[in-house]
Design brief:
Blueprint lengths: L16 E7 L6 H13 L4 E6 L14 H11 L5 E4 L1 H5 L4 H11 L4 E7 H5 L7 H7 L2 E4 L5 H5 L2 H5 L21 E4 L8 H9 L5
Parallel strand pairs: 1-2, 1-4, 2-3, 4-5, 5-6
Helix pairs in contact: 4-6
């Protein structure tokens, strides 16, 4: 996908509360859908934008399907009138969360953004480039994943920002809060993972 001087963004308007859910989505699966829809409902969002990254800087990219193919796969999986799928990271030439968040905030200063991630990502958040800028740049919503809640809530990022944790009962207001502010959402869980799906898809058939 070629870079655009002024990338086209999904529908938005001043005053909206929009969740940003990024990832490689290789491949997308039901757990991704649950995270997006749980955040949409529980946070009282107007829309969720799914940001399909050109490639996670912390992962190997060998065999990674094209950005366009993964965008198409996510659109096929998550058909919802208030969920949009975009490759804006590729358009602006970055796969760094802090950079795309800063870009979107500058481009849409009157939109209230919330960064959304699964609990498994909170465990490793301190390894992300300039991770504190993410926590300080926008409210963050963590959606529980099977077996990840204890590790996530004891992770370095959770401990560092413990004083700014918002009770789950107040999660519906977090989009309007000033960062840092983060919350942990419990809800229906799916044990699916992209890594396990890839491994299963490439494993030799049993004889």
């Amino acid at each position: 996908m070629s870079r655009l001087l002024t990338p086209k963004l999904p529908p938005h308007s001043p005053g909206m509360a929009i969740g940003l859910y990024g990832g490689s989505f290789n491949p997308p699966h039901e757990a991704h859908r649950k995270v997006a829809l749980t955040a949409l409902k529980r946070l009282g969002l107007d829309r969720v934008w799914i940001l399909v990254t050109p490639g996670n800087p912390l992962k190997q990219h060998g065999g990674l399907p094209s950005l366009d193919d993964r965008i198409t796969a996510v659109k096929t999986l998550i058909r919802h009138p208030r969920v949009d799928v975009t490759g804006v990271e590729g358009d602006i030439g970055t796969s760094r969360t802090c950079q795309v968040l800063a870009y979107l905030k500058a481009r849409c200063p009157d939109v209230d953004f919330v960064w959304i991630m699964g609990a498994d990502n909170l465990v490793d958040l301190h390894r992300w480039g300039r991770w504190r800028r993410i926590m300080d740049g926008a409210p963050v919503a963590i959606v529980d994943r099977p077996g990840a809640d204890f590790a996530a809530l004891s992770a370095r990022a959770a401990r560092t920002y413990a004083a700014w944790r918002v009770d789950e009962s107040d999660a519906g207001s977090i989009a309007r809060m000033r960062a840092p502010a983060w919350t942990f959402l419990h809800g229906p869980l799916s044990k699916l993972s992209s890594t396990e799906i890839r491994n299963g898809a490439t494993a030799a058939p049993a004889k």
